[in-house]
Amino acid sequence: MGSQIITGDNNIAQMKDISVTLTSGEGVDIVAELAGLRQALMELKAGDQHGKIDRALQDAEEEAGKPQPNKDEIGSAVARAVKYAKNASDFAEHGSKIAERLAPVVSWLGENGTKILTLAGIAF
For residue 24, is pLDDT > 90? Predict the structure, then answer.
């Protein structure tokens, strides 16, 4: 994987060297995977965005804990968290770890979840 330097205001981190392989999503423990994603995103230097990331992941975790979780709601909440996380100064630097954590979540979400990877700049 190569280095990436991003300068200026409101630049978008494109992690072209990072890709994930998606699975059928069967056997994914979505609650555990969301906890792993939370850990990865909360390590970012996201400043005042941490609160927004946390609230979005709380929404996802709350829905995931239900007997019949709504995948669209979880996907929407994860997408919000990623959108806020992308503002972190070190988002691209942590790209591999974030991709590793997003892959099982997106696999579990199914086809509609792939937009989250696109939002994060991760190939699949």
Answer: yes
pLDDT digits (tens, 9 = 90+) for 30-63: 999 999 999 999 999 999 999 999 999 999 999 9
Under 8 Å between Cβ of 62 and 112: no
- C-alpha pair distances (Å), 79 with each of 7, 17, 68, 122: 24, 21, 20, 13
Q: How far apart are CA 64 and CA 85, in angstroms?
A: 20
pTM of this structure: 0.86
Angle between helices 71-85 and 50-64 (to 10 degrees): 160
CA 27/CA 77 separation, integer angstroms:
21
Residues 6+ apart with CB under 8 A from 53: 41, 42, 44, 46, 81, 84, 85
